[in-house]
Amino acid sequence: xxxxxxxxxxxxxxxxxxxxxxxxxxxxxxxxxxxxxxxxxxxxxxxxxxxxxxxxxxxxxxxxxxxxxxxxxxxxxxxxxxxxxxxxxxxxxxxxxxxxxxxxxxxxxxxxxxxxxxxxxxxxxxxxxxxxxxxxxxxxxxxxxxxxxxxxxxxxxxxxxxxxxxxxxxxxxxxxxxxxxxxxxxxxxxxxxxxxxxxxxxxxxxxxxxxxxxxxxxxxxxxxxxxxxxxxxxxxxxxxxxxxxxxxxxxxxxxxxxxxxxxxxxxxxxxxxxxxxxxxxxxxxxxxxxxxxxxxxxxxxxxxxxxxxxxxxxxxxxxxxxxxxxxxxxxxxxxxxxxxxxxxxxxxxxxxxxxxxxxxxxxxxxxxxxxxxxxxxxxxxxxxxxxxxxxxxxxxxxxxxxxxxxxxxxxxxxxxxxxxxxxxxxxxxxxxxxxxxxxxxxxxxxxxxxxxxxxxxxxxxxxxxxxxxxxxxxxxxxxxxxxxxxxxxx
Length: 490
Hints:
By secondary structure, this protein is mainly alpha-helical. The protein has a single domain, classed as Up-down Bundle (Growth Hormone, Chain: A), CATH 1.20.1250.20. It has 22 helices and two strands. Helix 3 packs antiparallel against helix 4 (68-96). The longest helix has 35 residues, at 30-64. The protein starts with a helix and ends in a 20-residue tail after the last helix.
């Protein structure tokens, strides 16, 4: 009797629609362009806030007479805040919807970035940086979960990569703005304007994001089919030309979807069991790239530039060129994920990232070391962009943001370990080679995971998100628990 009731409940919760098929086969529209810009600029703002501390800390250190240890605490507070925000807001995006979260995190960011600009001492600065980091971690989860859920499958990988390329754009803007502000204003004023500028831009793009509807895929999880149909129709209405007319007349076989209400512990349980390999892949890739990104910054700030007697005021210029190389890496990612496939792009990019560290052993001039640093930035940006594209495609809608949040959180562990371990190795031996060896070891999980996925993983280029997340050789659902999860059809 109980089993019959459960079957009846499941049948009542099942909905049918061809809306996602129409979304996947839709031509590019004006809506898709607006969405790309709105999400990409948000990603750039996150990067602006993340990277501005590297350009301004020298000024803060002098103004508040901070020690090197206090500088490390400021970085650690930021990383811990991102870790907590990624997991917490990631689950909330699965539970309460993408739109609420990508609006809420941007507003949260604007409020506490403003507070950072008005910090009156070191302790208040740490508080506001931590609160801002919560929002940035949430943006990582909400934006990466949202970006692939709207775009036609033929454009999804390239467009996702372009959105993620907003990160080096934000980093370049951070370095350029810091250099100009310190040239135009007294240092104790310039850094405040820099943090305030990010908050003002966030409020403007909050207004732009209000026009983005809720994710149709998330709405289907709630059984809200009428809203899904309306959103897909409104997106199709922004298309133009003969292809758009043909598309509007085309109909697809309806697919079945089962309603689901995510819970935090159940999401984590599924990620640790049925999706353990895929979540493990995303986590290993994120750990590797975060270790390289933060390790390379520590290497530049603590070893390379001081060894070469580069003035502190010129540091933003070197970071600017590194992030220009990162932007090229983003463009490479946007091209390669479609041209060569996800798996090939993943293996090539993570392999290049590790190999790019090796020239630093031989190069002794400043131009040579900066070139190697730029090569690392090119490789690691190409790598993490490909990794985020894949992670968003191989996790199902009901726990996509949670899974991405977990991988981001594990990545922040790499971000915390790399500067500490590199600094310790350099101070213990007095030679840069030991720090470089630590950086290579921390980066190795990335190419190893990429190789395993290249050998045994699924290629998700030009397939629906439902197909990409449904083929799970490692999925094991306990027999003692009734199946309440959405079982997607291709």
